[in-house]
Every structure is written in structure tokens, then in C-alpha cells.
Amino acid sequence: MFRYGLSLCATLLAGAALAADTPQVPLDDPFASGMWEDHQIAILGDPADIRFDDRVRVFAPIAAEDAFHVPLLIDATAIPDVEEIVVTADYGPIPKILSYFPGEAQAKLALRFKIDQATAVRASVRTKSGSWHVGGTLIDAAGGGCTAPAQAYASDDWEEKLGEIHGRLWAATGRARLIVDHPMDTGLADGIPVFIIRDLSFTNDAGQELARLALSEPVNEDPAFTLYFDPARMPPLLHVSGRDNNGNQIAGTLTGEEVN
């Protein structure tokens, strides 16, 4: 009886492990990646309503000339009621790049990130109904962007500039562009711990949050973002606040005049 119980327990555990390795909604991955199903489960939470969707457009260079600053544009404006956009790299040593909660902004974001090898890069878009819509692209790369120390340490005054915000608003086109001075260390370089911005919040003058970013290690050093708004609803100024994983506060204001 005891042996039977052990055997049954082992069988149940094996079945649970197998189930955990297989998403409840298997998809026909257009990139035939060996990692997509793992990320579908571990990063997206194995959603019951998910599909690949051409309306989620991901624009990037075919090949990454600079592994430390790969430009990426996510455009999910064709999908209504977007609550969250999760950006991932299938073969990144740290696959999650960031989450974007557009709120009052458009479901569109430009960013830069570090790449470690050739990979599919995806934008997974969650709507208010809980459905997920996934788009992506392939980027070729020689790699190494995630495992090198930040270049900021070559400068003697990097700590004085830490957390400084540069950027401006373009009301006519509804764009908000910013750069934040920060090393964004992944923790993968020898002897250098993780040191990254964790979150950035964008609010209007009344204190209402209009959009939010939750960043992960692959976001590039001195991270740069462009947010997009309906020009008719573009705020005259945008307050930016956040913190890094060491508790350093980040704060600044974007206006129609450039912030140096």
C-alpha cells in the first residue's frame, strides 16, 4: 500500500510537471522558437485567451548593429482597450524587457534595449477583457549586450547625474520623449550587482497617472522612451517620477521646451 502511494504520488507529480510545461492554449508560433511556450506560461501567466495577432506591430532592425542600444517600436493602437503591453526577448538571459501600462496614452511605445543573441522579440498585449494579443519580429545579433558593465562607470561624475531626466513634449504630434541617466546594470557582468530603474510614472499637473512603465534588466543604459498621446488630449506638461532598486528617487517634468 505504501509503495502504491509513492508510485501514485510520483505519477501525479510527473503529470503536474508535464502540464506546467504545456500551455493551456498551444499556439502555432510563426518564429518556431523553442522558448515561446515557457514564456507564455512563466511571464504571461498561461492565459486562457491568447492568440498571435497581426494588429500588434513590432518594428526593429533586422540586425542589431549596437547590442547595447537596440531600437524598438511597439504599435498596438489597432487593438481597443489595451491595459498592458509586455515586451520580451525569447532568447534573452533575462527574457522580460518591460511592461507598459498606457492608461491615458496610446498603446504605442518606442524604447531601446540590450540584446544578447539573435532572438524573436515579442509584444504581448492584454486588454481589459483579459484577452492577450501577441506580435513580434526577429532580430539578428552578435550579442553580448546583457553581460557587459555599463559604460557610465568610465565617467567620474556618473553618480552626480544619476536619475537626471532629459526630454520634451511635442504637442502637435502628441509625443513625449525622455532619457533618464542610469547605468541599468543587469547583474550579469562579473562583480557588478543588479542596478536598474524599477518603475516610471507619468502624471499630469493634477496628479492623475496617465501612463506607467515597469522596467527589467534588459532596458538599455540611460533608458530612452517615446510615449504617444492623442494630440487633442496631450497635457501641457508631464511629470515623471520613479525609483531604482537601490531606492534612489527619479523626478522631473517634461514640457514643450527641451529639458537638458
TrEMBL record:
From the UniProt annotation, give the residues forming the signal peptide: 1-19
InterPro entries in alphabetical order: Fuse-rel_SoxYZ, Ig-like_fold, Ig_E-set, SoxY, SoxY_sf, SoxZ_dom
Q: Residue ranges of region Disordered?
A: 240-260
Per the database record, which ranges form the Sulphur oxidation protein SoxZ domain? 175-250
A Pfam family this protein belongs to?
Answer: SoxZ
**Keywords, alphabetical:** Signal
**This protein is called what?**
Quinoprotein dehydrogenase-associated SoxYZ-like carrier
Question: Upper taxonomic classification of the species?
Answer: Bacteria, Pseudomonadati, Pseudomonadota, Alphaproteobacteria, Rhodobacterales
